[in-house]
Write the structure tokens for this entry.
Amino acid sequence: MNKKVALITGGAAGIGKGITLKLASNGVECVIFDIQDASAVAAEAKKMGVDSTFIKVDVTDSQAVVSAVKDVSSSLGDINILINNAGITRDNLLMRMKEEDWDKVIQINLKGVFNCTKAVIRGMMSSRWGRIISISSVVGIMGNAGQANYAASKAGIIGFTKSIAREAGSRNITANAIAPGFIKTEMTDKLPEEVKKDYLSRIPLGKFGEVEDVCNLVNFLVSEEASYISGQVIQVDGGLLT
């Protein structure tokens, strides 16, 4: 994977940070788009001997995304790997959900995937090689009370991924979605204890997932060993959704 260039959205913390460092450890040059400061992550990746850059970008702003991608292409070359990871939650029951909370989740979680994929795919097409991995969720498959907006955004990612796999496959570009279950991150740490206990009781493996579990799958999917895998939704959930 030496000299490949990866764009990771939402790489400041959690799964995005883990993916960035995993790819960097395998010689991939990493560019992080985030609205949070990810300079410390970029610096940590750079210590592994690769070029690593943080650019403050709002993935919902299509013009900002296009401009940042052009800057990256000028300095590092075309982006070969895209990890669509940026996402938020704004949970509430549908009857209480504010329109702005619906719009914000869809804008970041789904439109952000559209903006970033569209911005990089022309370069992938030209070089006839690309890996697009979008982080969905088991919630996008099974739904979840109080998360109608989040579930809709993550289900949208699945449909989008399958469509891109069909559109871009002839140019040696794969597109896959990862659907994590309960992964221990800063986001899940904030959940009430009773919610955590309920989730744990439904996981056959009897434990929560680690960020590394998702990173290992990403590392495989971007490799040549996964060159014939495309249009798939792969769950990392300990058997939660079977």
Q: What stands out?
A: The beta strands are 5-9, 29-34, 52-56, 81-84, 130-135, 173-180, 233-236. The two ends are 33 Å apart (CA to CA). The mean pLDDT is 96.
